[in-house]
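Appendix B. Raw example, untouched.
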Amino acid sequence: MEDMVKVYINEEEQRYYEKGVTLLEISKDFKEKYRTPIVLARINNELYELHNSIDEDCNIIFYDLTNSDGIRMYIRSLTFVLNMAMLELYKDYRLMVYHSIDNGLYCEMKNGEGAFVAEDELYKIEEKMREIVDRDLAFEKVALNKKEAIAKFTGNKASKKVQLFKYRNSTQVNMYKLDWFYDYYYGYMVPNTGYLQKFKLTHKYPGFILNYPLNISADEGVKNSNSYKLFNVFMESAKWAEILDVNTVVDLNDTIARGDVGDLILISEALQEKKIGLIADMIQKRESNVGVILIAGPSSSGKTTFSKRLSIQLKADGYNPHAISLDDYFVDREHTPINEDGKPDYEALLALDINLFNQNMNDLLAGKEVDLPVFNFKKGQREYIGNIMKLKENDILIIEGIHGLNPELTKNIPDDKKFKIYVSALTQINLDEHNRIPTTDNRLLRRIVRDNNFRGYGAEKTIDMWSQVRKGEEKNIFPYQEQADVMFNSAMVYEIAVLKQYAAPLLYNIDSSMPEYVEAKRLLKFLDYVLGISSDKVPANSLVREFIGGSCFY
Protein backbone atom coordinates (compact mmCIF):
# COMPACT_ATOMS: atom_id res chain seq x y z
CA MET A 1 0.00 0.00 0.00
CA GLU A 2 3.06 2.29 -0.09
CA ASP A 3 2.11 3.45 -3.56
CA MET A 4 -1.46 4.25 -2.51
CA VAL A 5 -3.13 7.20 -0.80
CA LYS A 6 -6.24 7.05 1.37
CA VAL A 7 -8.74 9.83 0.81
CA TYR A 8 -12.01 10.70 2.47
CA ILE A 9 -14.53 12.31 0.14
CA ASN A 10 -16.70 15.01 1.73
CA GLU A 11 -15.74 13.61 5.15
CA GLU A 12 -17.82 10.49 4.46
CA GLU A 13 -16.65 8.01 1.86
CA GLN A 14 -13.21 6.39 2.02
CA ARG A 15 -11.31 5.43 -1.15
CA TYR A 16 -7.79 4.37 -2.13
CA TYR A 17 -5.93 5.70 -5.18
CA GLU A 18 -2.43 5.47 -6.59
CA LYS A 19 -0.09 8.25 -5.55
CA GLY A 20 0.02 11.04 -8.10
CA VAL A 21 -3.66 10.73 -9.01
CA THR A 22 -5.16 14.08 -9.96
CA LEU A 23 -8.18 15.60 -8.31
CA LEU A 24 -9.84 15.62 -11.73
CA GLU A 25 -9.48 11.85 -12.00
CA ILE A 26 -10.90 11.34 -8.49
CA SER A 27 -13.79 13.73 -9.17
CA LYS A 28 -14.99 11.57 -12.08
CA ASP A 29 -15.89 8.84 -9.58
CA PHE A 30 -18.30 11.18 -7.78
CA LYS A 31 -19.80 13.29 -10.56
CA GLU A 32 -23.18 11.56 -10.30
CA LYS A 33 -23.63 12.94 -6.79
CA TYR A 34 -23.52 16.57 -7.95
CA ARG A 35 -26.03 18.72 -9.84
CA THR A 36 -23.35 20.23 -12.10
CA PRO A 37 -19.76 19.37 -13.05
CA ILE A 38 -17.25 19.38 -10.19
CA VAL A 39 -14.77 22.24 -10.69
CA LEU A 40 -12.85 22.69 -7.44
CA ALA A 41 -11.60 20.84 -4.37
CA ARG A 42 -10.95 21.80 -0.78
CA ILE A 43 -8.20 20.02 1.15
CA ASN A 44 -7.14 20.99 4.68
CA ASN A 45 -9.04 24.25 4.34
CA GLU A 46 -7.26 25.26 1.15
CA LEU A 47 -8.76 25.43 -2.34
CA TYR A 48 -7.14 23.43 -5.15
CA GLU A 49 -7.72 23.28 -8.87
CA LEU A 50 -8.49 19.83 -10.24
CA HIS A 51 -5.21 19.50 -12.15
CA ASN A 52 -3.36 19.13 -8.82
CA SER A 53 -2.16 15.66 -7.86
CA ILE A 54 -2.46 13.84 -4.52
CA ASP A 55 0.59 12.23 -2.88
CA GLU A 56 -0.58 11.76 0.72
CA ASP A 57 -3.69 10.79 2.69
CA CYS A 58 -6.23 13.60 2.92
CA ASN A 59 -9.86 14.64 3.18
CA ILE A 60 -11.27 16.08 -0.06
CA ILE A 61 -14.39 18.22 -0.33
CA PHE A 62 -15.52 18.77 -3.90
CA TYR A 63 -17.38 21.86 -5.11
CA ASP A 64 -19.51 22.13 -8.22
CA LEU A 65 -20.96 25.13 -10.03
CA THR A 66 -23.68 25.69 -7.44
CA ASN A 67 -21.05 26.69 -4.88
CA SER A 68 -20.12 30.41 -4.66
CA ASP A 69 -16.45 29.71 -5.41
CA GLY A 70 -17.49 27.51 -8.31
CA ILE A 71 -19.74 30.24 -9.73
CA ARG A 72 -16.90 32.75 -9.49
CA MET A 73 -14.67 30.31 -11.39
CA TYR A 74 -17.27 29.95 -14.13
CA ILE A 75 -17.67 33.70 -14.58
CA ARG A 76 -13.92 34.29 -14.46
CA SER A 77 -13.23 31.56 -17.02
CA LEU A 78 -16.02 32.81 -19.27
CA THR A 79 -14.53 36.31 -19.21
CA PHE A 80 -11.17 34.83 -20.21
CA VAL A 81 -12.76 33.15 -23.24
CA LEU A 82 -14.59 36.36 -24.15
CA ASN A 83 -11.34 38.33 -24.13
CA MET A 84 -9.60 35.69 -26.24
CA ALA A 85 -12.45 35.55 -28.77
CA MET A 86 -12.59 39.32 -29.09
CA LEU A 87 -8.84 39.64 -29.68
CA GLU A 88 -8.93 36.92 -32.34
CA LEU A 89 -11.56 38.89 -34.25
CA TYR A 90 -10.76 42.54 -33.43
CA LYS A 91 -7.10 43.04 -32.63
CA ASP A 92 -7.38 46.84 -32.45
CA TYR A 93 -9.90 46.70 -29.60
CA ARG A 94 -9.55 45.96 -25.91
CA LEU A 95 -12.13 44.49 -23.58
CA MET A 96 -13.29 46.42 -20.52
CA VAL A 97 -15.34 44.57 -17.88
CA TYR A 98 -17.17 47.06 -15.68
CA HIS A 99 -19.85 45.74 -13.34
CA SER A 100 -22.46 43.07 -12.70
CA ILE A 101 -26.01 43.64 -13.81
CA ASP A 102 -28.65 41.01 -12.99
CA ASN A 103 -27.14 37.69 -14.12
CA GLY A 104 -24.33 39.12 -16.21
CA LEU A 105 -21.39 41.47 -16.61
CA TYR A 106 -21.58 44.75 -18.48
CA CYS A 107 -18.63 45.06 -20.88
CA GLU A 108 -17.39 47.41 -23.59
CA MET A 109 -15.11 47.09 -26.59
CA LYS A 110 -12.82 50.08 -26.72
CA ASN A 111 -10.33 51.58 -29.14
CA GLY A 112 -8.95 55.08 -29.54
CA GLU A 113 -12.28 56.36 -30.85
CA GLY A 114 -14.47 55.27 -27.95
CA ALA A 115 -16.72 52.31 -27.14
CA PHE A 116 -19.29 50.69 -29.38
CA VAL A 117 -20.14 47.19 -30.57
CA ALA A 118 -22.62 46.47 -33.36
CA GLU A 119 -25.11 43.60 -33.28
CA ASP A 120 -23.37 41.69 -36.08
CA GLU A 121 -20.00 42.06 -34.32
CA LEU A 122 -21.52 40.75 -31.10
CA TYR A 123 -22.89 37.73 -32.94
CA LYS A 124 -19.42 36.97 -34.36
CA ILE A 125 -17.83 37.21 -30.92
CA GLU A 126 -20.39 34.84 -29.40
CA GLU A 127 -19.85 32.35 -32.22
CA LYS A 128 -16.09 32.54 -31.71
CA MET A 129 -16.59 31.93 -27.98
CA ARG A 130 -18.67 28.83 -28.70
CA GLU A 131 -15.99 27.60 -31.05
CA ILE A 132 -13.40 27.94 -28.25
CA VAL A 133 -15.73 26.19 -25.79
CA ASP A 134 -16.34 23.33 -28.23
CA ARG A 135 -12.58 22.79 -28.62
CA ASP A 136 -12.46 21.81 -24.92
CA LEU A 137 -9.16 23.65 -24.41
CA ALA A 138 -7.40 23.25 -21.06
CA PHE A 139 -6.66 26.26 -18.86
CA GLU A 140 -2.94 25.88 -18.15
CA LYS A 141 -1.36 27.73 -15.22
CA VAL A 142 2.11 29.02 -16.08
CA ALA A 143 4.60 30.92 -13.95
CA LEU A 144 6.34 33.83 -15.68
CA ASN A 145 8.74 36.39 -14.36
CA LYS A 146 7.37 39.91 -14.11
CA LYS A 147 9.12 41.09 -17.29
CA GLU A 148 7.64 38.22 -19.33
CA ALA A 149 4.18 38.80 -17.85
CA ILE A 150 4.27 42.52 -18.67
CA ALA A 151 5.20 41.67 -22.28
CA LYS A 152 2.10 39.42 -22.49
CA PHE A 153 -0.12 42.15 -21.00
CA THR A 154 1.22 44.67 -23.47
CA GLY A 155 0.49 42.34 -26.38
CA ASN A 156 -3.08 41.87 -25.12
CA LYS A 157 -3.60 45.65 -24.82
CA ALA A 158 -4.05 45.22 -21.03
CA SER A 159 -2.26 48.40 -19.97
CA LYS A 160 -3.90 48.47 -16.53
CA LYS A 161 -2.47 45.04 -15.75
CA VAL A 162 0.99 46.36 -16.61
CA GLN A 163 0.52 49.16 -14.10
CA LEU A 164 -1.10 46.88 -11.50
CA PHE A 165 2.10 44.89 -11.05
CA LYS A 166 4.05 48.08 -10.50
CA TYR A 167 2.63 47.99 -6.96
CA ARG A 168 3.38 44.32 -6.28
CA ASN A 169 6.70 43.12 -4.91
CA SER A 170 6.49 39.60 -6.34
CA THR A 171 9.01 38.74 -9.04
CA GLN A 172 6.84 35.94 -10.44
CA VAL A 173 3.34 36.08 -11.93
CA ASN A 174 1.02 33.06 -12.19
CA MET A 175 -0.85 33.44 -15.47
CA TYR A 176 -3.25 31.21 -17.40
CA LYS A 177 -2.70 30.03 -20.95
CA LEU A 178 -5.48 28.98 -23.33
CA ASP A 179 -4.01 27.86 -26.64
CA TRP A 180 -2.04 30.96 -27.78
CA PHE A 181 -3.62 33.38 -25.31
CA TYR A 182 -2.14 34.38 -21.92
CA ASP A 183 -3.93 36.43 -19.27
CA TYR A 184 -3.96 37.08 -15.53
CA TYR A 185 -6.91 36.76 -13.13
CA TYR A 186 -6.93 36.74 -9.35
CA GLY A 187 -8.66 33.43 -8.75
CA TYR A 188 -8.91 29.95 -10.24
CA MET A 189 -10.20 28.73 -13.61
CA VAL A 190 -12.35 25.73 -14.51
CA PRO A 191 -10.31 22.79 -15.88
CA ASN A 192 -11.17 23.39 -19.54
CA THR A 193 -13.45 25.41 -21.80
CA GLY A 194 -15.89 22.52 -22.19
CA TYR A 195 -17.30 23.42 -18.76
CA LEU A 196 -18.58 26.79 -20.11
CA GLN A 197 -21.68 25.68 -21.94
CA LYS A 198 -24.16 28.34 -20.85
CA PHE A 199 -23.74 31.99 -21.80
CA LYS A 200 -25.12 34.65 -24.09
CA LEU A 201 -24.04 38.10 -25.30
CA THR A 202 -26.76 40.75 -25.18
CA HIS A 203 -26.47 44.19 -26.76
CA LYS A 204 -26.64 47.06 -24.23
CA TYR A 205 -25.60 50.37 -25.72
CA PRO A 206 -22.82 51.42 -25.81
CA GLY A 207 -21.54 47.99 -24.84
CA PHE A 208 -22.98 44.55 -24.16
CA ILE A 209 -23.75 42.12 -21.35
CA LEU A 210 -22.05 38.78 -20.90
CA ASN A 211 -25.00 36.80 -19.52
CA TYR A 212 -24.62 33.57 -17.55
CA PRO A 213 -27.06 31.48 -15.48
CA LEU A 214 -27.46 32.93 -12.00
CA ASN A 215 -27.62 29.38 -10.65
CA ILE A 216 -25.58 27.29 -13.03
CA SER A 217 -27.55 24.06 -12.83
CA ALA A 218 -28.56 21.53 -15.43
CA ASP A 219 -32.08 22.87 -15.89
CA GLU A 220 -31.61 26.65 -15.92
CA GLY A 221 -30.97 28.68 -19.03
CA VAL A 222 -29.56 32.16 -19.53
CA LYS A 223 -31.95 35.06 -19.01
CA ASN A 224 -31.64 38.59 -20.37
CA SER A 225 -30.90 41.55 -18.13
CA ASN A 226 -33.77 43.99 -17.52
CA SER A 227 -32.65 46.15 -14.57
CA TYR A 228 -32.78 49.45 -16.43
CA LYS A 229 -32.68 51.76 -13.41
CA LEU A 230 -29.80 49.86 -11.83
CA PHE A 231 -27.91 49.99 -15.12
CA ASN A 232 -28.37 53.76 -15.33
CA VAL A 233 -26.98 54.18 -11.80
CA PHE A 234 -23.89 52.19 -12.79
CA MET A 235 -23.45 54.39 -15.86
CA GLU A 236 -23.79 57.49 -13.68
CA SER A 237 -21.11 56.07 -11.41
CA ALA A 238 -18.89 55.50 -14.44
CA LYS A 239 -19.22 59.21 -15.24
CA TRP A 240 -18.19 60.03 -11.68
CA ALA A 241 -15.16 57.77 -12.11
CA GLU A 242 -14.25 59.66 -15.30
CA ILE A 243 -14.53 62.98 -13.44
CA LEU A 244 -12.25 61.65 -10.71
CA ASP A 245 -9.97 59.94 -13.26
CA VAL A 246 -10.13 56.78 -11.15
CA ASN A 247 -11.59 53.80 -13.01
CA THR A 248 -9.47 51.01 -11.53
CA VAL A 249 -7.42 50.16 -8.45
CA VAL A 250 -4.40 51.02 -10.58
CA ASP A 251 -5.68 54.60 -10.91
CA LEU A 252 -6.46 54.73 -7.19
CA ASN A 253 -2.96 53.50 -6.31
CA ASP A 254 -1.42 56.10 -8.64
CA THR A 255 -3.46 58.85 -6.93
CA ILE A 256 -2.36 57.66 -3.49
CA ALA A 257 1.28 57.40 -4.57
CA ARG A 258 1.19 60.99 -5.92
CA GLY A 259 -0.20 62.24 -2.61
CA ASP A 260 -3.44 63.49 -4.19
CA VAL A 261 -5.83 61.31 -2.19
CA GLY A 262 -7.07 64.25 -0.10
CA ASP A 263 -8.53 65.98 -3.16
CA LEU A 264 -9.94 62.65 -4.37
CA ILE A 265 -11.83 62.21 -1.08
CA LEU A 266 -13.20 65.75 -1.15
CA ILE A 267 -14.42 65.54 -4.75
CA SER A 268 -15.95 62.08 -4.18
CA GLU A 269 -17.85 63.38 -1.16
CA ALA A 270 -18.96 66.48 -3.06
CA LEU A 271 -20.39 64.38 -5.91
CA GLN A 272 -22.32 62.26 -3.43
CA GLU A 273 -23.61 65.28 -1.53
CA LYS A 274 -24.77 66.81 -4.80
CA LYS A 275 -26.71 63.63 -5.61
CA ILE A 276 -28.42 63.64 -2.21
CA GLY A 277 -29.38 67.26 -2.78
CA LEU A 278 -30.84 66.39 -6.19
CA ILE A 279 -32.93 63.61 -4.60
CA ALA A 280 -34.28 66.07 -2.03
CA ASP A 281 -35.17 68.45 -4.87
CA MET A 282 -36.98 65.63 -6.70
CA ILE A 283 -39.12 65.02 -3.62
CA GLN A 284 -39.93 68.73 -3.31
CA LYS A 285 -40.86 69.07 -6.99
CA ARG A 286 -43.33 66.19 -7.05
CA GLU A 287 -46.74 67.56 -8.06
CA SER A 288 -48.45 65.70 -5.24
CA ASN A 289 -47.20 66.32 -1.73
CA VAL A 290 -45.02 63.36 -0.71
CA GLY A 291 -45.81 62.22 2.81
CA VAL A 292 -43.70 59.06 3.14
CA ILE A 293 -40.13 58.44 1.99
CA LEU A 294 -39.27 54.73 1.89
CA ILE A 295 -35.58 53.77 1.89
CA ALA A 296 -34.40 50.20 1.26
CA GLY A 297 -31.18 48.48 0.31
CA PRO A 298 -29.00 45.48 1.10
CA SER A 299 -26.79 45.05 4.16
CA SER A 300 -24.01 47.60 4.66
CA SER A 301 -25.26 49.90 1.94
CA GLY A 302 -25.13 52.92 4.24
CA LYS A 303 -28.90 53.40 4.51
CA THR A 304 -28.76 54.92 7.99
CA THR A 305 -26.26 57.65 7.16
CA PHE A 306 -27.99 58.29 3.83
CA SER A 307 -31.29 58.79 5.68
CA LYS A 308 -29.70 61.32 8.02
CA ARG A 309 -27.99 63.23 5.24
CA LEU A 310 -31.20 63.27 3.20
CA SER A 311 -33.03 64.62 6.26
CA ILE A 312 -30.60 67.53 6.41
CA GLN A 313 -31.18 68.33 2.73
CA LEU A 314 -34.94 68.13 3.24
CA LYS A 315 -34.69 70.55 6.16
CA ALA A 316 -32.83 72.92 3.88
CA ASP A 317 -35.81 72.66 1.50
CA GLY A 318 -38.25 73.55 4.27
CA TYR A 319 -39.37 70.08 5.37
CA ASN A 320 -39.49 68.69 8.89
CA PRO A 321 -38.58 64.98 8.55
CA HIS A 322 -39.52 62.33 11.14
CA ALA A 323 -37.89 58.90 11.20
CA ILE A 324 -40.05 55.84 11.85
CA SER A 325 -38.49 52.43 12.43
CA LEU A 326 -40.11 49.38 10.87
CA ASP A 327 -38.66 47.35 13.75
CA ASP A 328 -41.36 48.81 15.99
CA TYR A 329 -43.97 47.03 13.87
CA PHE A 330 -42.68 43.51 14.50
CA VAL A 331 -45.43 41.10 15.46
CA ASP A 332 -45.10 39.56 18.92
CA ARG A 333 -42.45 36.87 18.85
CA GLU A 334 -44.91 33.95 19.14
CA HIS A 335 -46.49 35.07 15.84
CA THR A 336 -43.22 35.34 13.89
CA PRO A 337 -43.28 33.25 10.67
CA ILE A 338 -41.12 30.12 10.48
CA ASN A 339 -38.58 29.62 7.69
CA GLU A 340 -37.77 26.41 5.81
CA ASP A 341 -35.28 25.44 8.53
CA GLY A 342 -37.97 25.61 11.20
CA LYS A 343 -36.52 28.78 12.75
CA PRO A 344 -38.18 32.18 13.26
CA ASP A 345 -37.81 34.28 10.10
CA TYR A 346 -37.41 37.83 11.38
CA GLU A 347 -36.67 39.13 7.88
CA ALA A 348 -39.94 37.89 6.39
CA LEU A 349 -42.46 40.56 5.43
CA LEU A 350 -45.09 38.90 7.63
CA ALA A 351 -42.81 39.34 10.63
CA LEU A 352 -44.24 42.88 10.52
CA ASP A 353 -47.79 43.92 11.34
CA ILE A 354 -48.49 45.34 7.88
CA ASN A 355 -52.11 46.27 8.55
CA LEU A 356 -51.25 48.28 11.66
CA PHE A 357 -48.39 50.00 9.85
CA ASN A 358 -50.64 51.05 6.95
CA GLN A 359 -53.36 52.26 9.31
CA ASN A 360 -50.91 54.34 11.35
CA MET A 361 -49.29 55.89 8.27
CA ASN A 362 -52.62 56.79 6.66
CA ASP A 363 -53.90 58.28 9.92
CA LEU A 364 -50.77 60.42 10.19
CA LEU A 365 -51.08 61.56 6.56
CA ALA A 366 -54.72 62.49 7.29
CA GLY A 367 -53.59 64.78 10.11
CA LYS A 368 -54.72 62.52 12.94
CA GLU A 369 -52.91 62.03 16.22
CA VAL A 370 -51.39 58.53 16.45
CA ASP A 371 -49.94 56.59 19.38
CA LEU A 372 -47.01 54.84 17.70
CA PRO A 373 -45.84 51.42 18.96
CA VAL A 374 -42.41 50.60 20.32
CA PHE A 375 -41.10 47.05 20.12
CA ASN A 376 -39.57 45.69 23.32
CA PHE A 377 -36.87 43.29 22.10
CA LYS A 378 -36.23 41.88 25.57
CA LYS A 379 -39.86 40.84 25.99
CA GLY A 380 -40.43 40.17 22.29
CA GLN A 381 -43.61 42.23 22.36
CA ARG A 382 -45.00 45.47 20.95
CA GLU A 383 -45.72 48.14 23.59
CA TYR A 384 -47.31 51.59 23.79
CA ILE A 385 -45.44 54.09 25.95
CA GLY A 386 -47.03 57.34 24.88
CA ASN A 387 -45.05 57.90 21.67
CA ILE A 388 -47.62 60.31 20.24
CA MET A 389 -47.18 61.87 16.80
CA LYS A 390 -49.25 64.29 14.77
CA LEU A 391 -47.96 65.70 11.51
CA LYS A 392 -47.91 69.41 10.87
CA GLU A 393 -47.53 71.29 7.62
CA ASN A 394 -44.27 70.40 5.83
CA ASP A 395 -43.75 67.35 8.07
CA ILE A 396 -42.61 64.25 6.19
CA LEU A 397 -41.99 60.63 7.26
CA ILE A 398 -38.76 58.76 6.55
CA ILE A 399 -38.97 54.98 6.84
CA GLU A 400 -35.90 52.80 6.40
CA GLY A 401 -36.00 48.99 6.21
CA ILE A 402 -35.39 45.97 4.02
CA HIS A 403 -39.02 45.82 2.86
CA GLY A 404 -39.29 49.50 1.97
CA LEU A 405 -39.72 48.86 -1.76
CA ASN A 406 -42.07 45.89 -1.43
CA PRO A 407 -45.52 47.17 -2.50
CA GLU A 408 -47.19 44.88 0.04
CA LEU A 409 -45.64 46.85 2.90
CA THR A 410 -47.48 50.04 1.90
CA LYS A 411 -50.40 48.48 0.03
CA ASN A 412 -52.99 50.85 1.54
CA ILE A 413 -50.95 54.05 1.26
CA PRO A 414 -51.69 56.04 -1.93
CA ASP A 415 -48.86 55.83 -4.46
CA ASP A 416 -48.74 59.60 -4.93
CA LYS A 417 -47.89 59.97 -1.24
CA LYS A 418 -44.84 57.67 -1.45
CA PHE A 419 -41.30 58.29 -2.69
CA LYS A 420 -39.14 55.16 -2.83
CA ILE A 421 -35.33 55.15 -2.75
CA TYR A 422 -33.00 52.19 -3.31
CA VAL A 423 -29.55 52.53 -1.71
CA SER A 424 -26.63 50.20 -2.39
CA ALA A 425 -22.83 50.27 -2.51
CA LEU A 426 -22.34 49.69 -6.25
CA THR A 427 -18.56 49.48 -6.56
CA GLN A 428 -17.26 51.93 -9.12
CA ILE A 429 -13.73 50.62 -9.67
CA ASN A 430 -12.22 47.28 -10.65
CA LEU A 431 -8.70 45.94 -10.25
CA ASP A 432 -7.89 46.29 -13.93
CA GLU A 433 -9.51 45.80 -17.35
CA HIS A 434 -10.91 42.33 -16.60
CA ASN A 435 -10.72 41.67 -12.86
CA ARG A 436 -13.83 43.17 -11.32
CA ILE A 437 -14.50 43.97 -7.67
CA PRO A 438 -17.94 42.52 -6.86
CA THR A 439 -20.28 44.87 -5.04
CA THR A 440 -20.90 42.11 -2.51
CA ASP A 441 -17.18 42.06 -1.59
CA ASN A 442 -17.24 45.78 -0.91
CA ARG A 443 -20.31 45.41 1.30
CA LEU A 444 -18.83 42.42 3.10
CA LEU A 445 -15.70 44.40 3.95
CA ARG A 446 -17.87 47.26 5.20
CA ARG A 447 -19.82 44.87 7.42
CA ILE A 448 -16.69 43.15 8.77
CA VAL A 449 -15.34 46.52 9.87
CA ARG A 450 -18.67 47.77 11.26
CA ASP A 451 -19.45 44.54 13.13
CA ASN A 452 -16.06 44.66 14.79
CA ASN A 453 -16.26 48.36 15.67
CA PHE A 454 -19.82 48.45 16.99
CA ARG A 455 -20.78 44.87 17.87
CA GLY A 456 -17.46 43.36 18.92
CA TYR A 457 -17.68 40.57 16.34
CA GLY A 458 -14.62 38.96 14.83
CA ALA A 459 -14.41 38.76 11.03
CA GLU A 460 -15.10 35.02 11.18
CA LYS A 461 -18.58 35.60 12.65
CA THR A 462 -19.48 38.15 9.97
CA ILE A 463 -18.27 35.84 7.20
CA ASP A 464 -20.18 32.93 8.73
CA MET A 465 -23.43 34.94 8.71
CA TRP A 466 -22.91 36.45 5.26
CA SER A 467 -24.48 33.65 3.22
CA GLN A 468 -27.73 33.95 5.19
CA VAL A 469 -27.64 37.73 4.83
CA ARG A 470 -27.24 37.36 1.07
CA LYS A 471 -30.05 34.82 0.94
CA GLY A 472 -32.38 37.30 2.63
CA GLU A 473 -31.37 40.05 0.21
CA GLU A 474 -32.10 37.88 -2.80
CA LYS A 475 -35.56 37.16 -1.42
CA ASN A 476 -36.61 40.44 0.17
CA ILE A 477 -34.70 43.30 -1.49
CA PHE A 478 -33.34 42.69 -4.99
CA PRO A 479 -36.67 41.64 -6.57
CA TYR A 480 -38.09 45.11 -5.80
CA GLN A 481 -35.12 47.38 -6.57
CA GLU A 482 -36.49 48.47 -9.96
CA GLN A 483 -39.64 49.80 -8.24
CA ALA A 484 -37.65 52.63 -6.69
CA ASP A 485 -38.29 56.20 -7.84
CA VAL A 486 -34.56 56.82 -7.63
CA MET A 487 -31.42 54.80 -6.89
CA PHE A 488 -28.45 56.03 -4.90
CA ASN A 489 -24.95 54.58 -5.11
CA SER A 490 -23.31 54.83 -1.69
CA ALA A 491 -19.92 53.44 -2.77
CA MET A 492 -16.94 55.76 -2.62
CA VAL A 493 -14.19 55.40 -5.18
CA TYR A 494 -11.54 55.72 -2.44
CA GLU A 495 -13.14 53.66 0.32
CA ILE A 496 -11.50 50.30 -0.40
CA ALA A 497 -8.13 51.85 0.48
CA VAL A 498 -9.53 53.02 3.83
CA LEU A 499 -11.38 49.78 4.61
CA LYS A 500 -8.20 47.80 3.96
CA GLN A 501 -6.52 49.33 7.01
CA TYR A 502 -9.36 48.11 9.24
CA ALA A 503 -10.37 44.83 7.56
CA ALA A 504 -6.98 43.25 6.82
CA PRO A 505 -5.89 42.79 10.48
CA LEU A 506 -9.28 41.26 11.29
CA LEU A 507 -8.99 38.84 8.37
CA TYR A 508 -5.47 37.84 9.38
CA ASN A 509 -6.92 36.73 12.73
CA ILE A 510 -8.76 33.91 10.94
CA ASP A 511 -6.36 30.97 10.98
CA SER A 512 -6.29 27.96 8.69
CA SER A 513 -8.25 25.79 11.14
CA MET A 514 -11.39 27.93 10.85
CA PRO A 515 -14.13 27.26 8.26
CA GLU A 516 -14.02 30.93 7.23
CA TYR A 517 -10.32 30.77 6.32
CA VAL A 518 -10.86 30.23 2.58
CA GLU A 519 -13.03 33.33 2.26
CA ALA A 520 -10.67 35.40 4.43
CA LYS A 521 -7.73 34.36 2.26
CA ARG A 522 -9.61 35.33 -0.90
CA LEU A 523 -10.41 38.78 0.47
CA LEU A 524 -6.83 39.32 1.65
CA LYS A 525 -5.48 38.42 -1.77
CA PHE A 526 -7.72 41.02 -3.35
CA LEU A 527 -6.77 43.67 -0.76
CA ASP A 528 -3.09 42.99 -1.41
CA TYR A 529 -3.44 44.89 -4.71
CA VAL A 530 -4.65 48.05 -2.96
CA LEU A 531 -2.48 50.70 -1.29
CA GLY A 532 -3.98 51.53 2.09
CA ILE A 533 -4.67 55.06 3.31
CA SER A 534 -5.45 56.65 6.66
CA SER A 535 -9.02 57.60 7.50
CA ASP A 536 -7.92 61.01 8.84
CA LYS A 537 -9.17 62.91 5.79
CA VAL A 538 -12.57 61.18 5.63
CA PRO A 539 -15.22 63.79 6.60
CA ALA A 540 -17.31 63.23 9.73
CA ASN A 541 -20.55 63.14 7.72
CA SER A 542 -19.24 60.59 5.17
CA LEU A 543 -21.15 57.37 4.57
CA VAL A 544 -17.85 55.56 5.12
CA ARG A 545 -17.90 56.75 8.75
CA GLU A 546 -20.95 54.53 9.37
CA PHE A 547 -18.55 51.58 9.19
CA ILE A 548 -15.16 52.84 10.41
CA GLY A 549 -16.54 55.07 13.19
CA GLY A 550 -16.19 58.77 13.90
CA SER A 551 -19.49 59.80 12.31
CA CYS A 552 -21.06 63.08 13.39
CA PHE A 553 -24.49 61.42 13.23
CA TYR A 554 -24.01 58.94 16.08
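End of appendix B.
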